[in-house]
Amino acid sequence: MLVGTGSDVGKSVIATALCRIFLQDGYSPAPFKAQNMALNSYATPDGLEIGRAQAVQAEAARVPCHTDMNPLLLKPNSEHTTQVVLNGKPIGNRSAYDYFRKEGREQLREAVCEAFDRLSARYNPIVMEGAGSVSEINLRDSDLVNMPMARHANADVILVADIDRGGVFASTYGSIMLQTPEDKARIKGIIVNKFRGDLRLFESGRKMLEELCGVPVLGVVPMFKDIVIEEEDSVELEQKHRSLQQDKVNIAVVLLRHISNFTDFNVLERDERVNLFYTNNIKDFEKADIIIIPGTKATLDDLYELRRNGVAQAIIRAHRNGTLVIGICGGYQMLGQTISDPDGIEGSIPQLPGLGLLNISTVMTAEKTTKQVEFEFEGKKCRGYEIHQGKTEPCTIDHVQCTISVNTQQGERKSPFKGDLEGHITQASNCIGTYIHGFLDNPSVIEFILKPFGQESPSKGDLEGLEDFKDHQYDLLAEHVRKYVDMDKLYEIMASPPALPRREGVGAR
Quick check: 392 and 327 in contact, CB under 8 A? Predict the structure, then answer.
């Protein structure tokens, strides 16, 4: 089990690397995170919902993702409430106070432990991941994901520390010393992550850390730049703001407060013809070639903010002047005439007018759609997935075959879709809206939206398939971690008898 000295220390990336390393070494690994708080999620093959990070780790292990890998998913609606998704299905919204109360925790504990038991019966080893800091002692009694889960699984624990943020000695020592004697005995190693500079400069620090904590340092992993692994959180998006470039297609992604599934734009971001950036600057929208409104966990709240800060009006003006506007999921809902929430599914806003660029309307519903989808675009098979609440009624669409017509300053382009797409893809002049996440992962869709701008397509050799590209990145990540982590020592830890016997009973503490 990988736990952290804090949030965003790189536990998920190290877990992804270990999934691929164990696979390469002949094992059958699978990831597990009892509880994940994230707005990036994914639809499993059987139409349920898990955290995107565990879906990525499953890809690294080359196994189908399953809700047992992330039985409890928390999706914040606002600063005070979150949607609770258990075993892939939402069970309601709760405030943070209500969620972390001891009452009712044992039912959730039982559910996550049962999920682990099912998973561990099918795969070996299980690469477990904690959440946030392992030393939140005020939440110890209600914790479902860190050391209580390690006790249930009888897992040896590796502590991941982030040296880039500073304070690595204090955070590592404190994280270990704040554990109970039983939990402290489970911590068998330390990985120092995100190192910058010459590793030789930290040799003495490594020895000091081992002497201070009484735990071996298994590795010091340098920061990497040339390996592409999907990000779990949106904390880095604000830094992805680049100046407009005259020789590229400038794509502005609206930086929503509750942005979700921003991995939708990773493929476009890597395209050499594209300059993609996240912004709320009105002037950027005036100059962009394409504007994308992404998914969101709080559509009405984010739409209200876009109207308040003038971004909505800027998008409408840009569209009127010929800019292509694309809406994904919640962004798709915003492009319509109205969004209604009569039952207060999202919050206290009952209805808002949309941007009016598509002739559709949306009503929020308690039922959540989660599924993987396939469709045909210009004769090529495409894939994606849907995760959304709300029913959208398009006023004009042929669900057997619809035609998207995009008028740009460079000309008009038409392309047929085939498949049952009613309520999933809608078009109007200069505007495309869809519920399909991963819509822009498909090369035929990317070529369709970029070709009117007059740039040549990359050579065939440059159009590496997304699956092949990602699989290669997992290999690169595994190679990177192997180089800096003592895998022989890690295997020795895994093969040794556990420090403590496993306690009987689901959720034993």
Answer: no
